[in-house]
Every structure is written in structure tokens, then in C-alpha cells.
């Protein structure tokens, strides 16, 4: 540490809600969180003392930001690997490092690597070469339609993903003309989606959270059930082992979230993320160590914290923006209705469909806990009138 | 609220660890915490985005600070009541208000009021008039020696309190010459000290936390056991009722901590505080709603949160500074030793005996939980060598 008496400085590139919630944990640990935000209005910039305004995709901004940090980490996957290597070469460790993070940045690299490691994945193919349409057509014939077309980079919350019922020449040509790299995957039939969240520290310690079920609507995670109800213990243990092994083999430092499909073929890996993850927000109240504290402990190479849950069931529901920006007046009702509900708002401008916060409920009875979380999230979005049809469900980050 | 879309602005006068921990709760609630700190190095100033540097005992600084706040509250008791009234007259509500806060600022006013309300207090007398020594002497004859001499204002952590075995003319004359107002109280024999923490909102809602036991050394709280072990249920309920009634009768808005003696005469009120209190730090991990969130909810007149504990036993131990400022290297050991221990550091310069943080342990077995908290606090202070005799135990805030 550069100044032991003052505590470590952790730089987080990106000023979104993940950095914001990391600040809550940093305060407790006596860690100085420095945030590189695009604007002073960013979610995390509103709650941190040490905010640098800049572009985390600019090497100059990133390098200036990293100076004086004990370690640099990330609120998202969009910092170019070359920049990360340059910052490391200049003397500031980045966690995760560029080589690991690449697997959360490029879906094709991830699939190739996980397949080589023997991790269970959907079948896939790169869409490239002279006749990309022929690849999609051949892949569809082999696996059956529909197939899933993905941009290898830059997608999130359902963006960059298209379900094709047949080779859609117009769409594919348009995407390639935009310069996107594409891949195609089989459309996996699954019963539900699970997520495995683990942490790994540079000295090699690992810690796994209970496996959760994630519920998606229109490509956006709307609900997380912890632990995944009715999940076979063997499968849960297998999912934890799989995530810990991926973290180790890829050299991840910090958190790793592995999104999984559960279906007739067992577990299949969907996506990876190497940062605090929406599927882990429940840990703020629901685990002895929140994912945000765990990420800080991991990137600082501190011993990891206990992941034991604080209640038999914990349900997190994302709060999406509705038509009326005055979410704070609505949370009064939510708190009065349910004194045990935990409201977490991100300080973001309310736009229809945008993730602006989440709520967490805890208790002994899953149906009850789920209903409480659902009610609170719906009320914060819509107020007493309930959903209005004209509001789009499309989300953003 | 002045700008509903952006969330309320709560101004907290004072930049100590109570404001720092309030920031953790404010982030979750989407509340913008503005802090009036004496220096950018203050505990809370290091972790808040909206910091105003100034003197909270100056009306000009306080008034400028209050502008644009939806409500002003306090991290300590030292803001003069007249200033608070002036800020309220200028249009910003202060919670607690001056009339209520006076009872946490002036021990004689508090004793007179509580006695009038019939709340159980130690016997006491004002030390004033022409012959203050005669008052002390008479009081000692009546109640028996020793007696407790107190400055009516400004004391904390054992400061401003003297135990007299007889009329100590030299000391009393010196204190009076310093301009201190004095009172004398009987030296109450007690088995242990308890604390009752409640919240009250402007619309009159009240919420009580479980009664805790506080363990003091040299006038400083070193340990809090929640709930108070072996406490008779009736007495616990009586303590909660007493605190709720005091909050109501005094018109407290926000938190009220009532420090109590438990002894042969039942419960006696020792001191009052109207802010988050050291005896409530255990609630961060140990209760569904932390005292910091509860205080914000109360001063914003939001419905209060559930106070249910998250484990059968929760023990908080204060971390005092030792000789070596590098507490961060020592917490590595503490975390490795006990993955479930929660470390909370205040970002304060380490000085011997100064409160620089606290640790919290939770579990089913009180002796075990207490040992874990004690070990962590001792290790953070002393390291592997254990206490060194030459270090003073004298504390400060």
C-alpha cells in the first residue's frame, strides 16, 4: 500500500451503479474509492469524494486516473485490453487483468476458451469469412432453428443479441456493414437461468456464493431468487465448482459471475462478467459479505469474506423507470407498506425502462418474499395505478 | 422535496464517523448527504461528494450550508440552539429541533425535564449560587460519597465527569474558574449499563431497537452486546417504552439513544443522545434497518424500517488506536482469522486510544461471538504482540 496510515486507494473505471454500491462497501473497509466517471452526474460520481471526470476508453485519461491508485478495477467490461496492459506496465496492477477480462469482453474468445477447458457451452460458430450467411444457414440446419446471432463484443441487457428463425440476409448484412463481429449459437431450450457468483484473489483464494435463479424479461434481469429454489444440491455444488474453476483457469482476480442455463442437458454457460453483477445485488442485505465488499477484498488481495446468507430466502427485484420521475414520493408508500423492504436507488435520472434501483426482501417463505419484492418494484415503477401499456419495456444500463 | 427527481438533500452538521456511516445508508436510499465538516480530512468528508468546509458553531457557515437542504440534522450535540432556530426560521427544518436537542446538550435541563416527566433518574443537584462547595458537601452527606461531578455541557466519552470522594475544593474552584456550569449526581451502584435506541419521525411514528448492554472502560464504550444478555423481558419492554415516551414528550425527531443504569433500583436514565449512537453501530449488520438508515428515514419523515435483528447475538467492539498507524495491514490478519468478522474503519488518523473504527460479529453463541469481536478489536489495535502498557487508554471522539 502506498500510504498504509490512510488506507488503500482503489480506482474503479466507470461511474455506474456498481461503482456507487462499491462505495458503500469501501466506506466500511476504510478503502478510498476513486472513480473515473464520464460525468459528474454519473450514479457513482454523486456519492464519492474522489471523482475524476474522463473517458475510460482513453488511454491518457485512464493512465492519469491510475496514478496513485494501489489497484485499478472496473465497473463494466468496456476498457480496451491494451489500455489495461499499458496501465499495468506503468506500475499499477489492474484486477481483473487484460488477459482474463478479454473473456468477458469477447464472447467468441470466451466460447473458444471455455470449450477448450471442457466447460459445458451451447454449440456455436464464428460468423465470418467469404460467406457468413452460409455459415448461419449451415449452423441452423445442424442445430435446428431458431439460432441466436450475437455481436461478439459490446452487448448487454439483451442488446447485441438477435434470435433468427432463418438466415436473415438483410439483418446480417446490415450488422456486418456496421463493422460488428458476429457469432451464432444454438437456441438452447432451458427451464430457467441460474447465476454462479464467485470471487478469486491474486493469492488464489476462492469463495462462492449460493447459486441463484435469475428471471429475465425482454433480455433484462428483473428478479433474482437466492438461493435458486428447488435446485438439486449436487447441481448447485457443480455450478459453484464450475465457476471457481473458470475463475482459476482464466486467472480472474475479483468477482466472476457465470450466467447459466439449466435444462435437459444439465448446465450450460451463457455469459461471463468480471465485476459485481446484477445477480449479486441481493448480497448487500442477504449475505454476511456483500459482493461489493468481496470484490474490494479480492482486488486488494485481502482474505475473502463469509458468503453465508442472512435469511432462508432473499429476493432482489430490479426497479425500472416508469413515466413519472418522482420515485422518491413513491418509496414512501413502499416503506409504509413493508417496513422490512430494502430500497436501493442509484441516483439516476428516471427514464422509462431504465434500471434505476433495486429492492430486496428477506424471509422464510419464498412466495411471500417474492411477492413483497415484486410489489415494491412494481409500485416504485408505476405507482398505485399499475403498469401502463404505452410504456416501452426496452431497457438500458 | 425541492427536486423530487434528484432525491432529497439531507444536510448533516459535523463530519465525524457518524456522518460517514450515514453516507453508506444515504447512498442506498438515493438520499444526497451534504456534510458540513471542519476539514477535508474529516472522517465523513473523505467519503461524501457534497462536502462544505466550515464551522458548525458559526451561524453564517451553518446558514450557508443549510440553503438547498430539505432538512438539516447533526452528527453531534454541539451546534448552538439559537443557530438551529435561526436556520429553521429561514425555512429549513432541523431535526431534532433546538427545543428537543437542548436535552442532549445540557445535562441539568435534561434531569429537570425527565424528573418532571417521572422518568427514573439518579438524584442530582445544580452546583451554583454563592457557595457551590456547600452544595456538593450537603449532597454528599445526603446520598453518601462518592458523588459524580459533571459539567452540564460539552462532555463525552468520560470527559467532563469527575468522581469525588469528598468536596474537592481545588478541582471545583478550577472548573468554575474555567466558566463551566456544574452539577452533582449520586454515584449510582449498578450491575451494568444498558442502552435503548429508538427513532421518532415528525408524523409521530416510533420504532425501538432491542435493548443492548454497553461495556465501558475508562469512560469509553468498548463493547456492545445485542440484545443485552439475560435481560428480563419485562425490563427490556419497560426500557423501550421509556425511550419511546421520552422521544415523544421531548418532541425528538430522528434517533434518540437513552443510556441506562441497571441496578437494584431498576433502570435509571444516565444520558441522552439524539443522533446515531455508538451503542447502535451493531445495527449496520445486525438489524434489518441500520440506525443510520433509520435516522435518515426519521428526519425525512419517511416510514421507519424494521428493527429485527439478523442473528441471535450481535457484538460490536470499538477499535481504539494503538502505537502503529498501519491498521490496514493488521486487518488482513483479522479477516483471514475470521471470514465472518465485519470491519468498519473511520478513515481517521490513528492516535493511541482514539476510536478509529469498530468490528461486528454475529452468531448463535454469545461467548463465541464476543470472543471473535474482542479478538478482532484487540488485534487491530495492538497486532500480534498484545497490549503494551505504556500506551494511554485515554480516548477522544
From TrEMBL, chains A, B:
Catalytic activity: 5-amino-1-(5-phospho-beta-D-ribosyl)imidazole + hydrogencarbonate + ATP = 5-carboxyamino-1-(5-phospho-D-ribosyl)imidazole + ADP + phosphate + 2 H(+)
GO molecular function: 5-(carboxyamino)imidazole ribonucleotide synthase activity; ATP binding; metal ion binding; phosphoribosylaminoimidazole carboxylase activity
Keywords, in A-Z order: ATP-binding, Ligase, Nucleotide-binding, Purine biosynthesis
EC number: 6.3.4.18
UniProt keyword annotation of Ligase present: yes
Enzyme class, UniProt record, top EC level: ligase
BP GO annotations: 'de novo' IMP biosynthetic process
One GO CC term on file: cytosol
Domain called ATP-grasp: residue spans: 111-300
Entry keyword Nucleus: no
Pathway, per record: Purine metabolism; IMP biosynthesis via de novo pathway; 5-amino-1-(5-phospho-D-ribosyl)imidazole-4-carboxylate from 5-amino-1-(5-phospho-D-ribosyl)imidazole (N5-CAIR route): step 1/2
InterPro entries xrefs: ATP-grasp (IPR011761), ATP-grasp_carboxylate-amine (IPR003135), ATP_grasp_subdomain_1 (IPR013815), PreATP-grasp_dom_sf (IPR016185), PurK (IPR005875), PurK_C (IPR040686), PurT/PurK_preATP-grasp (IPR054350), Rudment_hybrid_motif (IPR011054)
Residues that, per the record, bind ATP: 107, 150, 185-188, 193, 270-271
SUPFAM superfamilies, per database record: Glutathione synthetase ATP-binding domain-like, PreATP-grasp domain, Rudiment single hybrid motif
Role according to the record: Catalyzes the ATP-dependent conversion of 5-aminoimidazole ribonucleotide (AIR) and HCO(3)- to N5-carboxyaminoimidazole ribonucleotide (N5-CAIR).
Subunit description: Homodimer.
Family: Belongs to the PurK/PurT family.
Name of the protein this chain belongs to: N5-carboxyaminoimidazole ribonucleotide synthase
Source species of the chain: Actinomadura rudentiformis
Name of the coding gene: purK
